[in-house]
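Lecture notes, structural biology module. Today: joint structure prediction for complexes of three components.
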Amino acid sequence: MTDATADAEIVEALALRKRTRLNLMLIFLLVASAGLWSAWETDFNLVELVKGWGHINNLLARMFPPDLEIVQNLGGPLIETLQMALLGTTIPIFIAIPLACLTATNIAPDPVLGNFIRLVLHTLRTVPELLWAMLLVTAVGLGTFPGTMALILHSTGSMGKFFYETIEAADPGVIEAMEATGANRFKVIMFGIMPTVLPNYLSIVLLYWEFNNRAATILGLVGAGGIGLTLTHAIQDFEYTEAVTCLIAIVLILTVIDRISAYLRKKVI
Amino acid sequence: MIVVSDLAKSYDGTIYAIKDISLTIEKGEFTVIFGPSGVGKSTFLRCLNYLVKPTSGDVIIDDQRVGDLSKAELLGLRSRVGMIFQDFNLVNRMSVLGNVMCGRLHGLSVLRALTYSFAQADHEAAVHALRRAGLADAELYNRRVDTLSGGQRQRVGIARMLVQKPKVILADEPVASLDMKMQHTIMRLVSDIAAKDEITVVMSLHHLDLAKQYATRIIGLSDGRVAFDGPPDSLSDDIIDKVFKMEDKKVVGTRDD
Amino acid sequence: MTKEPEAQAQLTMPDMPVRFTAKRMLVAVVVIAVHWWAFYGTGLNPVTIVEGIPAMWDLMQHMFPPSLKNYQELVRPALETVYIGVLATIIGSVLSIPVGFLAAYNMSHPLIYHPVRLVLNVFRGVSEIIWALLFVVAVGLGPMAGVLALIIFAVGVQSKLVAEAVEAVDPGPLEAMRALGARPWKVFLYGAWPQVLPLYLTFCLYYWDHNTRQATILGFVGAGGLGVTLFWDISVYEFERATTSVLLMIIMITFIDRLCLYLRKKII
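The predicted structure, tokenised, for the full assembly:
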């Protein structure tokens, strides 16, 4: 290779490097413009931010010291929250697994049914829990019943998607081998897929339990039970010291839940 | 050029990785620190540029006491000391060119550093260094470093060191991860560069044949202390045995044990 | 060919694994008991579910078909939801880089590391809706409260993820950068950050999706977006209009969800 061709190659290599940098800069500009446009449209600017800072300080001052008298009243709502979250995690398992088996492309018996179920699962998981809760409260009234149902609906959608994706990622060789031994679909699933897929499920179930506990704390906002109701009432009544006690209680409970979840995860995995 | 006196390092206060090391390395010497794994070669090397802070003792490079240097001065010293590693220590996702230009990080202005933009001069220096290190194929320059072979990666490491225009090269087992043929190639490369640029080399190796072939001076470590210090030809077999503690010839147990 | 008696004695059957250990029975009992307690407390059981179905079906009938009456009024809130999601993701993602750096054990000073991690736990511990509620009280109704709420939560989560990624980087390149005389922040930018970047971008896309979802219901507490009109419509029993909002919501979220999926593939 002569020096001339070598130099030409180097110029090309450096030019390529420059082009990549230019592309990155374009992406950066795109993102920055999107941000600026969004800020403009939502009236999010430094002036408002500074004004807001004063208000936030004001609010913080009114929130402390926390009102400790209401702590004894928090037990009931907190327990409701935990109960809703528990059922909202465990019941969907029994619904989502069969649904996932019906819609996973590698083992679904009927593609039309499979697609329909996929659509249903997508809707269930896309509609936020709070919205489900509000609709259900409108239908059946206030309380923990609609709250739990809302969590069940949403989690079925989320878990269902995760389950069918895991099934679809299963080793096709194993499925083929089981089918070759003459096992029917049910047995193929139980002995071919479930054993490999189950450990993953457990980890995900714990994750959704954590999510559901968080979601359950706010369902009270629309009257669906739990500590969210106490919190909302406190804020609406301008009782900010009570509100902050609720907040602290929520943070503590969620931290405990996270620890338990981490512990269980270690024991199972 | 490099004066080490009573150097000692202990990581936990009781067991010493290296102890009582005193020696003087002249400019232009190719010094190989030789010894079995775990004997303290890496620790010693890292004490020279204070990547590891010695527990006691002094390191004096170019009449400057390294222990007395301020933080900024220490960084300045390090920028003039090149280092190459057994596992290359390159940034895998970065391009070859990017990795080499990192050698110029010390002098890179804040603005340039934050925006990852090196100057044209840095680009040119990098290309020259890569050529010198034996990577003339420009097609490689924008490729991610983890797409290269082991030998090529070490060349990139050497190029990164070259753009620093170092006065000293510290090499920590630079060929231990390479196959035999590449070992010799890289050793020859480092040796040639050091000779041409009058760079002082301090290299740790556990390959005896390579040490004997390329070093002008061999320092054997045993139990963290200097057990031998002299030219390669005076490294006799029983000294080697003492350094490697090969008295126990029976390594594998027999059926009757 | 009969086998030797000793060889035969060696072919014993292994013990069958015991299925019903005392420990497993105990765990099963506890799980059932806890669920019984939960069913009791929430009032959920087959009877109540069956009793509730007519009411739910009734609601469903009221909600369909979706009404297109004054649909233009929905466009502005829908866009506002997107803007909230975009802005919160950008600001939150940018802030999570320095905060994540401070929360990383191998990069930060212990005096800074612990308080930062504590603050992040608080940010993550409280749901975004609650933050939104607080910000509405503090800065007033409107999208700004929503953006701030999402930023707080996002910084809480993303900074922790960044910190964990930074703590897991290969220390080799870091050593090399230190050896050539680079200051700690340069060591971070050139040695650690390139290793963390792809993971970081994946988080950003994931949270853009998440933030848009949350932004749709922040309006329930008055923090802007489609949630405001939706909350109103349901409260005044304008169910058909509510359905239109819900459908719009689903379409928006699905679109951004697919977009994020596509972009994530391009990063890997």
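Point to remember: The longest strand of chain B covers residues 16-25.
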